UniProtKB/TrEMBL annotation:
Keywords: Metal-binding, Zinc. PANTHER family: ENDORIBONUCLEASE YBEY, CHLOROPLASTIC (PTHR46986). PROSITE patterns: COF_2, UPF0054. HAMAP family: Endoribonucl_YbeY (MF_00009). This is Haloacid dehalogenase-like hydrolase family protein. One of its GO terms (molecular function) is metal ion binding. The keyword 4Fe-4S does not apply. It comes from the Eukaryota. Transmembrane segments: none annotated. One of its GO terms (biological process) is rRNA processing. It comes from Populus tomentosa (Chinese white poplar).
């Protein structure tokens, strides 16, 4: 199993960051997480048959990763690492002839690291395991090439590796966000890139160890480039590895056209010798007629299918409203929103619906995009907060809270509806009840997917049918604002609350009930803290939920009161605001 690396660490697709120390660097002694057998192959460098250590480490023993580090416990990570410092005294090298008189055993110490921001994706773990085998082979062939070839433009600070007892190299896999920060810190270029090389070799310092340096690869950028170039992610990762390794060995395509041609040729030679697919990075860039901007990462890259798998979730739960939020102005869920929810679920994030709709209506809507059922967002066995009065379902879909409207308020609302011929819907468990037919009543079923309203013969029949959790008056937006809301805000007299989710509906709910209180009840039931959740909404009935969450996102189509309390204003519900929020803030 591979441990994680703490956030520390970024070269433009065709550049490198080289940090050359001027004084000896202290090197941390690390407890190896795993010791594996060495890779042995005959060459002009003699690799001893004794095992060499290829350590999967939380921290690498090179200067860049030594810049800052943390020690993690096994509660959160798969290994514990202790770090201490050891010094190397300067030693007098034996004369060249003496060194050549005896075959040299050269130990390669390779650290393959996975930055902690990457999830436990099986493909990433597989690539890391392959790199454990591939990197020493690539190093050996590259060293052989240095001895057997003459280069006009290469920096020869590293010449004869046979003069060292061991060579250390670290390779790190990360996502775009991480490499972008590193690129900004080390090169003052605020964009993501595919590979960075950081040399830690100190010319003239007489040490038994060659600290070759660090290669940092963004698997997210590599995945996009692999798709563009028609090969696999491991193929692209190997191409980037070769590019980064050659930079550490003194090749630099940026200094001149001759240097670029020389490095380009060496990339091709090395890839061919290794039997790896793909052209060198320089040649691939020319073939695609790309520029540096072509590789720059942006938040939009996260909206590409599969991109989120390179990010660990920032939140355990997403609480999401339906009308005006997950649903667009046509009361439909877009394929983009559906895809984002599925990708969040695939990353282990639990999505909980918090809505004024009845649970059957939500199941019916999400079933159309394959998000209902055991492995979806909603089912009869999933948690949820339903603002019908307030009904909260906990583990296994078990009801943990229910509040009903005061019977006197229900009676007055029914009489008002009958006398003024203003359509009214009473929500009772999974049923909808009304007093007369009306086109707006039908729309609640055909457009908003609520259960088809049952017409009751009288007010008394409706009130005696079952307990009522919520009542909704249906009218024009003007009628609600000018007549219904002012009247019922006063008429309820503290016996009920008056709220709005959409402009043309007025909801009457039990006092003290809100999505916020429902979400709090559910969090207590599940043992989840508010720091673990983000919430997305648009209406006034979402205000307390957004205030409660660690991150509250109001869509731009939302009410001004809701946007005023939100941490972030997102895109509108007609612009796939939920998807944008997930891609930008959940990971």
């Amino acid at each position: 199993m591979l441990p994680r690396l703490s956030p520390l660490l970024r070269n433009s697709p065709m550049a490198r960051a080289v940090s050359r120390a001027t004084t000896p660097l202290p090197l941390p002694t690390l407890l190896p997480a795993t010791t594996l057998s060495c890779l042995h192959s005959p060459s002009s460098l003699s690799f001893a048959p004794k095992p060499s250590n290829f350590n999967f480490l939380l921290l690498t023993n090179t200067g860049l990763f030594n810049k800052k580090f943390e020690t993690f416990s096994q509660e959160n990570y798969r290994c514990t690492v202790w770090a201490s410092h050891r010094g190397y005294r300067k030693v007098r090298r034996r004369p060249e002839a003496a060194r050549r008189s005896k075959e040299k055993d050269l130990e390669l110490s390779v650290s393959i690291c996975i930055e902690e921001g990457l999830p436990n994706d099986p493909e990433i773990l597989s690539i890391a395991e392959l790199l454990r085998l591939n990197v020493p082979t690539a190093m050996k062939l590259a060293f052989d090439s240095l001895k057997s070839s003459t280069f006009k433009t290469r920096d020869e600070a590293i010449a004869d590796v046979g003069g060292f007892d061991s060579i250390e190299l670290s390779v790190m896999l990360c996502n775009d966000e991480f490499i972008r920060k590193l690129n900004k810190e080390w090169r003052d270029e605020d964009h993501a890139t595919d590979v960075l090389s950081m040399s830690q070799h100190v010319p003239g310092l007489d040490l038994p160890i060659l600290m070759l340096g660090d290669i940092v690869i963004s698997v997210e950028t590599a995945a996009r480039q692999a798709e563009e170039r028609g090969h696999t992610l491991i193929d692209e990762t190997r191409v980037l590895l070769v590019h980064g390794l050659l930079h550490l060995l003194g090749f630099d395509h940026e200094i001149s056209e001759e240097a670029e041609a020389e490095m380009d040729k060496e990339e091709g030679v090395l890839l061919e010798s290794l039997g790896w697919k793909g052209k060198g990075l320089i040649q691939s860039a020319y073939d695609a007629k790309t520029t540096i901007n072509h590789h720059m990462g942006s938040s939009d890259d996260r909206m590409k299918e599969g991109s989120l798998r390179f990010y660990k979730p920032k939140f355990s739960y997403i609480f999401c409203d339906m009308d005006g939020t997950l649903l667009n102005s046509k009361s439909q869920i877009s394929l983009t929103n559906a895809k984002a929810l599925k990708e969040a679920l695939s990353r282990g994030v639990k999505v909980v619906i918090a809505t004024g709709k009845a649970r059957p209506a939500v199941i019916d809507i999400l079933k159309a995009v394959d998000l209902a059922g055991k492995n979806g967002v909603i089912s009869e066995f999933s948690p949820g907060v339903f603002l019908q009065g307030l009904i909260v379902y906990g583990r296994q879909g078990r009801e943990i809270f229910r509040s009903n409207l005061d019977l006197s308020v229900c009676r007055e609302a029914c009489l008002y509806s009958w006398e003024h011929r203003v359509p009214l819907i009473a929500f009772s468990n999974d049923r909808c009840l009304t007093l007369f037919e009306h086109p707006l009543v039908d729309l609640l079923h055909t457009v908003y997917h609520e259960p088809k309203a049952e017409i009751m013969p009288s007010v008394e029949h409706l009130l005696s049918a079952a307990d009522i959790q919520k009542m909704i008056f249906l009218d024009t937006a003007e009628g609600v604002a000018m007549n219904l809301r002012p009247y019922w805000s006063e008429a309820t007299g503290g016996r009920a609350n008056v709220v709005q989710a959409v402009p043309d509906m007025l909801e009457i709910v039990p006092p003290g009930t809100s999505k916020g209180s429902g979400v709090k009840l559910l969090l207590d039931h599940l043992g989840v803290t508010v720091e673990e959740i983000m919430a997305i909404g648009d209406g006034e009935n979402d205000i307390e939920m957004l205030e409660l969450a660690s991150l509250g996102i109001a869509l731009s189509n939302g009410s001004e009161k809701t946007k005023a309390v939100a941490n972030v204003i997102g895109a509108s519900n007609d612009e796939d605001g939920v998807a944008s929020a997930i891609y930008q803030y959940a990971f």
